[in-house]
Structures are given as C-alpha cells and as structure tokens.
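Q: Please design a sequence for this.
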C-alpha cells in the first residue's frame, strides 16, 4: 500500500475522525481540489479519505473542532495520529499540516 493509495488515506481519515474533539473533516489541498471534493461530497461521490491532501513531502488536514475541547490539544492529537501514519506509510520526513477550520457547537457527523 502506497501513501497515496486511497485505502491508506481513507484509513488515516478514519483515525483522524476518531480523535476526541474532531467534529468534521474538511477538504484540504489546493482550491481546485477542495472544490472538486466539495462537489463530490454533495453528489455522494467523495470519501473522507479524499479530504486529506497527501504528497511526497506533505500531509494536509483541515478539521472542525467541537467547542467543548481545547483546539490546540485536538490539533496536537490529530498531528500525532498523522505523524504515526506518515511514518508507517514511508513518509517520515513529510510536513504534517493540521488546520482547525471551524469551532463547532456540537459534534456533527459527516
């Protein structure tokens, strides 16, 4: 399984969504890829794994955080999960970018 294999990235997405305090996973990556993923989400054609941008030297993740949790702690926990995944996927030097894109009043399932 390669780092950009959809099953591998989908596994990372599942791990990220399971982190306490993560309320949603937003599309990451370039504007064009985010628009395409958003359209896919509306039509039912996208998966959570497609919302994470993975390159040879970068993993980008955009999350929503439940307001009952400390944003910095949630982002650090997502970083830790992502770093472990990147190491297993053969990307030990990849930059991990975790962005809190929203603070939500209650956890919402996507």
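A: Design:
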């Amino acid at each position: 399984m390669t780092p950009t294999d959809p099953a591998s990235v989908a596994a990372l997405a599942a791990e990220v969504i399971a982190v306490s305090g993560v309320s949603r996973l937003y599309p990451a990556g370039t504007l064009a890829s985010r628009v395409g993923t958003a359209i896919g989400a509306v039509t039912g054609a996208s998966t959570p794994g497609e919302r994470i941008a993975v390159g040879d030297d970068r993993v980008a993740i955009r999350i929503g955080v439940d307001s009952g949790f400390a944003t910095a702690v949630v982002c650090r926990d997502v970083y830790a999960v992502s770093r472990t995944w990147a190491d297993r996927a053969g990307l030990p030097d990849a930059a991990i970018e975790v962005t809190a894109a929203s603070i939500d009043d209650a956890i919402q399932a996507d």
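Q: Thanks. Anything notable?
A: The first helix runs from residue 6 to 17. The chain is about 40% helix and 25% strand.
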